[in-house]
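Hi P.,

Sorry for the delay on this. The queue was packed all week, but I finally got your sequence through. Input first:
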Amino acid sequence: MLRRMLNVLVVCLSGVLAVVIGSSVTVLANEVQGLKSGVVRITAHVNGAAKVGTGILVRLEKGAAFIATASHVIEGDPQPTVQFYAEPGRPVASKVLGMEGGDPRGLAVLVVRDDLPDSLRVLPLNSHVLVESGDPVTVLGFPRMAGAPWAVTKGELVGRRGRDLVFSGAIDEGNSGGPLLKGNQVVGIITEASPPFAYAAPAVLAQYVLESWGIRFGVTLRSKPATLSSVYLQDVIQQKGFHHPFDGSAEGLPGGWMGTMVHDYEPKTFSGMNVVVDHATGLMWQQSGSPDQLTFGVEKREPWEYVEQLNQQRVGGFSDWRLPTIEELASLLEPIGQHEGMFIDRVFDKTQWVCVSADGLIRQTQEGMVFVTGPWELFVNFDRGRIDHRRYVEGETRKGFARAVRTMVSEE
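Then the structure:
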């Protein structure tokens, strides 16, 4: 059942369709533009001189952005300034949270606590991507030799030397701290440029170092409800590394896919409520959910009302519960039916076998008909291991369980 998707992906973003044909290791122009929202320009002042480097966003919280870079970019300046892609003319102060001082290929992490742009994007460090000599790689950053505010540079992986990845390309010190990309996945953080070669800390090492400073990593998932296309869902499953055991491609939905998603679940109890904390995504889930299937339709809003009641009663001591997006729900899918045949971890209650999301779906059928489903019409069926939907029919009543979720903050 499990099979690789076609190399031809139809990507629909913001209602604009584009057909992309080619190797999955090619960074596409529109994807590069998106990646820039996760890359920042860093300026440090040491002994009266300014030096410029690059950093990548590795975690976002409410009012806080955490940025990884190379230690030598900021060493000597406890408050370097950062400029975001969306606001290039507004430098903001940062604070150094951790640094491997004195190490010419060390790492550092900064935090910016400010009014952050809405378009910021986390670039997860992906330690699961296989890198080999000869692989094409891409670098985003601010090399001085380019004479431009941004530069996208192509290179080639030369090999490994000790703890470092070695690669070639037109790289200089302005790229230090920036992402080393294979395809659109961050496989390393650039730590040194000494032509003809440059060096990067591999993602697995960078994760280990930054986690020692309290920076948790994982997959960042969309939390705001949206109306999506089925091809968007296909792309999300691949990009986020989700598992999707059931092949729904015949219905225009995601096909069978074995992902790389690894969870870090921790069961907890707050004020008598059992929850599951997933440190891989920074989400706190209800261990169970609504005890019965909720009915909803034209005149009903019961999934919303269920979550609202949780918040009014401060269940678990929290008042920020919400219905999950389909991305958040799909992240829970497991590759095999390990929970009495259900494709979800045993840490969760098996009662909620089909859970509704806050998202809707827009899809074009083979007959050319376009239909839109409303909120809660897009759901995850853990019994079959798939994303599914209900086609909206006026006056019809539908059913589904709700499993509420909330986004945790660093203090938790």
